[in-house]
Amino acid sequence: MTRTDIPPSVTLTKPAPPSSEVRTWHTVRPYALLWRREMTRLRHNPLRLVMGLVTPLLFLVVLGTGLEAASSTLGKAQLNDYRAYLFPGALVMSVQAPAIAVGISLVWDRRLGMLRQMLVSPFPRSSIVLGLALGGATTGAVYGLALLAVGGIAGVRYTPMLLVVLVELLLVSLLFTSFGLLAAVTIRQVDTFQIVVNLSLMPLMFFSGAMFPPNGLPGWLDTVVKLNPLTYGVDAVRRTLPGPDVLTSEQTRLMLGDWNPPVYAELGVLAALTAAVLGLATYRFSRTQ
Questions:
Q1: pLDDT per position as a tens digit, 4-42
Q2: Rounded to whole angstroms, how far apart are CA atoms 121 and 176?
Q3: Taking every annotated instance into account, which residue ranges of this chain make up the domain ABC transmembrane type-2 (predicted)?
Q4: In degrees rounded to 5, what are phi and psi of residue 17?
Q5: Among the residues of the chain, which ranges form H helices?
Q6: How many other CB atoms sit within 10 Å of the CB of residue 37?
């Protein structure tokens, strides 16, 4: 049919361009879908939440109580309440496992063919990585919130400052998730991924000041602790928690020479590192075939 065959009553019009709301939803949709995926996994597997809290609770209650009692018995106590000192480390420990689980799920998605479906979707690949990162960070924050609820056993006071602590845990969880995603887009074997992650997380926790004050250490150990980014996360959480004086005493706070970095500077270090790792993970993922 030619244009001359079109009846006079028929008018040709161009389709209206999508509204700003539609464009905004199209941009946000992949983040929301992948975030909801992680929340659905958490909701349908409550046992995962319970088991994820077993290790940090044992770390806090058994190790903290035992060493506190031993120090009191031997008369060598350096901290008034060692269990309170351990609590920030237990909080950070509680958010690392669910955050790293996002990386494990991505490795399994590649093995089962689910990753290919993500790659052929119309969404930008960067949005896929960011959506997974936000979902993993939120899951980790839920674990941290569950442990904060029992913080009274370590002398933590229930005040509005706990909301600030929760935001700090969300940032730490996002950092762990970013590392997990970077490892997942680099390592293709599930077994290799789990070995690498386990070997990386344990030193990060032990050399973060979570179990001993970060000051007055031997030269090599002092250097390792100060270079560990997790040290700044643990110290920020410890100084923000409302609780016993041991959390903010000069003996336990992090010192870089004669300078005690403020909490916002420590969080800035974590945020900058998170952005760098997440950017590298996005770049590697965008080149995935």
A1: 554 555 444 555 556 666 667 667 777 777 777 777 766
A2: 26
A3: 47-288
A4: -65, 150
A5: 20-43, 46-58, 64-74, 82-112, 114-119, 125-148, 161-186, 190-206, 219-227, 229-240, 263-286
A6: 15
